[in-house]
Amino acid sequence: MIYFCPNCWKEISKDTLVCPYCGTDQTIESKKSFLDKLINALEHPEAKTRMRAANILGMIKKKESIPALLNRLDIETDPFILADIVYALGNMNDKSLMSYIEKYDSTDYPIILRNAANEVLKKLKL
Question: What are the contacts of 106-110 at 24+ separation with CB within 8 A?
Fold first, then answer.
């Protein structure tokens, strides 16, 4: 099995206590909640991991994840991940998030992202 530091995502050995790359204490990281680990995964270098994290955060509907999802919405460039973040935010059923999502319902963005924004906005307006 391959192990990675949950902070910098570099490969480390199973028995590593402190990441040699970023200095993160692995015993502290292992005690973090599932929610915190998912939020941290939004920063993963692999796109599929960021996508999975956004999907799961949307499914579990924890409002504590909204700031991290909004932050990722501002810095993400992959339209597929952005669409998943929009869906995750939509699953929070919080109308105050509409203003963040509305801007993606525009021809300035790829169709996958526009469709996600359109679906979420319809759902939130109900």
Answer: 109/79, 109/82, 110/79
